[in-house]
């Protein structure tokens, strides 16, 4: 299982990344052993006058000091690499979501957020760091034990048997309990994220229904057990430390007493065993504590690995000939289902390079699914959606699409942040944005480029539905798209705003293709083509 987990870790990160970490673990452990060997050498030289030499002694001391400097550098870079894993894994999960979109949401957005923030943190602190410590302590323990076995075989074998019996006994006693609380931690953390997310989205409803106390009680049930299980795991990890140290010291003391009674000279062995104990006891404890943490961190590791292993490919990007053809998209869908539930069937229509194409249908008729298929966020197995030859691939197609979602997707940040949306558009300056906003009818809130620094709350609190829509429209149009998609554009508008929107759309459709997804039958009057969806068909 250990090798399988190493292989899995190698799969979800860069293979060279793991090699670099392993190499630095080996170097750091070797330097630990080297420092002890140098200390042995100093003791051996000082207790043996025939070997005593200032030059030799100074050389060993210099080597010891140099090893400290090198060890500090290696440990610093090792820790940098280990803790950079939280960035590597979090970014990979986010990148995977941006690539696959809805196909990753089977477990919900809160589960995804939990993986990105909390579970990745747990993987680093309770899996990767312990794994690193486990490997380091193993190398130190094995190296020192081989040396002691050569020098003092009987003492070494005795101590090894005591250590092995105690640690194996503790492992067997706590194994089932550790696995159970590890699974509980994963569950409670996921539920805690989900509950907080629900509270942030529904706090008004919670207040209206007087559900404050029950919500807090539910949070307590998850959060308290989570905290308790983390504490219990820490206790299990450090429990053997004091008991085993005491037993080892008692055992060594008894051995020495017996040896002194026999008249043996034990000074050198006492010093050697004392120095070895300084390294061995913490290394044994680190080994056990790290192994216990690995058990506790495994569920989080598997959760992140499952998320990163999702590999639902997009449908193939197809072109149509475009010869004597004014269509920018051709859609032919034999059928599309979610599991055993049919959603779309026998859908055939084309979208022209200019003009307004409206997809009309009631809730549940498959409008949103059709939109996801056009944009490539769902995989179509039975049918084809082909694009004009001017788009070389899916990314180029999407870069030429302007999209106005139903909820407008306004983020917390400045007005400029909401319009640029993390994009870098060459040749676009702030004056262009101000001019477009004014053209869209937002001159009341934007007079000049300084107004672009106005801060908006998440969701655009304080703005009207029409203002939110126009900001989203500006975001869609600022990149000069060839296709503009509007999802339920009239749902939050009054009649006057709706009329102005229709006039604007007709003007835009003179130069680009406008696709409207709506249930409002009033869009028919200004559309060039109307596709009416019924349940599973046109």
From TrEMBL:
It holds the Pfam family ABC_tran. The chain crosses the membrane at residues 21-43, 55-74, 134-151, 157-175, 242-258. Coiled coil: none annotated. SUPFAM superfamilies: ABC transporter transmembrane region, P-loop containing nucleoside triphosphate hydrolases. One of its GO terms (cellular component) is plasma membrane. SMART domains: AAA. GO terms for molecular function: ABC-type transporter activity; ATP binding; ATP hydrolysis activity; ATPase-coupled lipid transmembrane transporter activity. It comes from the Bacteria. Its main location: membrane. Residues 26-254 form the ABC transmembrane type-1 domain. Keywords: ATP-binding, Membrane, Nucleotide-binding, Transmembrane, Transmembrane helix. Residues 323-538 form the ABC transporter domain. It is found in: Cell membrane. InterPro entries: AAA+_ATPase (IPR003593), ABC1_TM_dom (IPR011527), ABC1_TM_sf (IPR036640), ABC_transporter-like_ATP-bd (IPR003439), ABC_transporter-like_CS (IPR017871), P-loop_NTPase (IPR027417), Type_1_exporter (IPR039421). It is a multi-pass membrane protein. This is Polysaccharide biosynthesis protein.
